[in-house]
Amino acid sequence: MELLAELNSPVMYLICGGIILFVSVICIVFAVRAYRAGRQLGIDESKMKRVITASTTFAVLPSIGILLGVIALSGSLGTPWPWLRLSVIGALHYETQVAEAASEAAGIGGLSIANMTPEAFATIAFLMSLCIMWGMVLVIFNGEAYSRRLVSPSHPEKGGKKKKSGMSGFGDTAMTAMFIGLVSAYIASYIGTIVSGNGMFSFQGSWLPLAVAVTSAAAMGVFIYIKNRTGADWVDSFSVAGSMLTAMAAAIFFGRLIG
């Protein structure tokens, strides 16, 4: 617990909070410039205000999932570092997965403050930062070309490439395939832990994560069904947070059930 106190020290809050404050100021500057640019273009100010209000409202719901990620990681990595990672450029699914993988590679057998060492934390923090930085690096070289493709996708003569109807881009397909492979690998690891050497199934150990995963997937399926059935696109704004809350409740329920 002494290490956790150091990870939550005022120095850590000062460093991480300072970076977050700097990024927040930049966001405010760009927001003000965008508003002024809208006025110069002659856009109705009442419409811009409605867009700002709607964007702010819908930004609150996804942030619930981010807050849950900070809470989940704060028990082993302290509060300032997850707060920084999930506030600036990190992603909820990325940070938790990389932190878990890095902890196993560091030899502490998963995210647990009981086994955490300064060396393990440094390894986890380094990998969490290193693996996410390439988007910022690559955009320096291909950002302009990618922006031209986004100018007018349906008008090739203006620099865009027209997509075939119903066809998704390579990036969307690659991301979908990557996450399917990632989820499959984790599920397979849990199943492999359950299956004993003699091929007999033991419901002690990894069945709880499987049950939570199934419950979370079912919750996400409900959100997708509601969206497709009603056409309410706003459901996407809190589908991740809702699935995470459902999964956390399921973990508590199943944990008490077998406890």
Q: Give the CA-based shape.
A: globular
| Helix-strand string | HHHHHHHHHH
Largest sheet: none
The beta-strand count equals: 0
* pLDDT averaged residue by residue: 80
Poorly predicted residue ranges: 154-160, 198-203
**Helical amount:** over 70%
- How large is the count of helical segments? 10
Question: Structural class of the secondary elements?
Answer: mainly alpha
Quick structural summary:
This protein has 259 residues and is mainly alpha-helical. The chain has ten helices and no strands.
What does this structure look like?
The chain is mainly alpha-helical and 259 residues long. The protein has a domain at 166-259. The chain is built from ten helices and no strands. The chain has helices at residues 2-7, 10-40, 45-77, 80-85, 92-105, 118-130, 134-151, 170-194, 207-230, 236-258. It is globular. The relative contact order is 0.07. Residues 154-160 and 198-203 have low confidence and may be disordered.
Produce the secondary structure layout.
Blueprint: H1 2-7, H2 10-40, H3 45-77, H4 80-85, H5 92-105, H6 118-130, H7 134-151, H8 170-194, H9 207-230, H10 236-258
Helix pairs in contact: 3-10, 5-6, 8-9, 9-10
Notable features of this structure?
single chain, mainly alpha, 259 residues, globular
